[in-house]
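Hi F.,

I've been meaning to write this up properly since the lab meeting, where we talked about keeping a consistent format for the predictions we share between groups. The idea is simple: the sequence comes first, exactly as it goes in, then the structure tokens exactly as they come out, then a line or two of notes. No screenshots and no reformatting. I'm using this chain as the first example so we have something concrete to point to.
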Amino acid sequence: MTFPDMQSKSAKLYERAKHVLPWGSSRQAAFFKPYPIYAAFGNGSRVTDVDGVERIDYVCNYSALMHGHCHPKIVEALREQAGKLLSIALPTEAEVRLAEIVCERMPGIERIRFCNSGTEGVMFTIKAARAYTNRPMIAKVEGAYHGSDDTASISTYPMPDSWGDPDAPDSVPPAGTTQHCAEDVTVIPMNDAEAARRIISEHRDQLAAVLIDPMVKNLGYEQATPEFVGAIREETSKHGILLIFDEVYSFRLGYNGAQGALGINPDLTAMGKIIGGGLPVGAVGGSAAIMDELFDQRTKPRLEHSGTFNANPMTMAAGAAAMHLLTREEFDRVAALGDRARSGLAEAVKISGAKATVRGTTSVIALFHAAADQEMHNYRDIMTVLAQDPGMMERSYKFFVHMLNNGVLMTPYGFMLLSTAMNESDIDVMLEAALSGLRALKETAAA
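Output, unedited:
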């Protein structure tokens, strides 16, 4: 079956969904035109849709499925837990097990509390920083996505008519967020160490924390440089400001997360995705000194943090199983697959002569349909490229559809993520499909 097919089961399900869901979906990232493909079941690296078409899943639920679909050990852990408790207003040993694993793995985390999404994890790190420092402001990188919390969503997608000076970006609220909220956020250009020092110093008496993602998906998986992170760490330490790492995605940067790879410990860390074993999860972790002071149960805690499904036993059981499976050897094996995938894609770009560039690291891959010599290191670079090449997004979508029709599920914007369920043959299939897709794009451009 070729996508799109308006007689397909997916197309008909979408028509049905539009009667009860606005635009037929609860999740913007899972939607694409003219209709999204509806999943039926998954196994290992493969997912099968409701029309019976099987594809290699290179989306991995945007990083949450580190071990692919229905890993037997995760399913076994869930089956065992489901026979005991689904949810409960009491702690469980499963929570303790997962907490022990994460604290052992992440250098900057000595204590951790769980919630139910990466958005919540980021939200609670921000609230924790404000409660700990008694200061109102947060600094974040322009264009960095940290979920849908009001504070974290400031200047995620600012437009040129509102983003201000490149050396001192304006704080731009998205629709539904007030300008008052934006006043509590200051914005830093990505990987500009001197601008970061200056902006942090200017707001030092008001800043509770600087929030950074060491690998920004919205910026084409641009990695924070050691100089940038080092400058922020020095300035925050100097002025009593907390440093927050958003490791919801960047946990893929190293076996010990981005903080292990960079050799810099944040004061607080937001986590999610991988640590839930495929179930909804989020977390806020940090040093014992900060976390114990914030959540001291001997008195009224300085920060309220509750939730009906926080540390629910099903997620905790799946998360513990998933983290046990993610050994250093498996992490390195999948990172090696990522190296091969990126080099193979770069070769495909060269052979085809298509306008494209390859980015990413470890198990993270991106193929952007822009010339390799174009600067794309911060949000404004990317917006400039898009403005200068309005056909870029159309090429990206055509390539996405080609990959769908050749057995590969990726994101419409060029992102791919690997899982431990993948092997060399999965990479072979993807590279063969990519080469034919890039050649088709080149031929269309020449016509």
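Notes:
The two ends are 27 Å apart (CA to CA).
Residues 72-325 form a domain with the Aspartate Aminotransferase; domain 2 fold (CATH 3.40.640.10).

If this format works for you, I'll send the rest the same way.

G.
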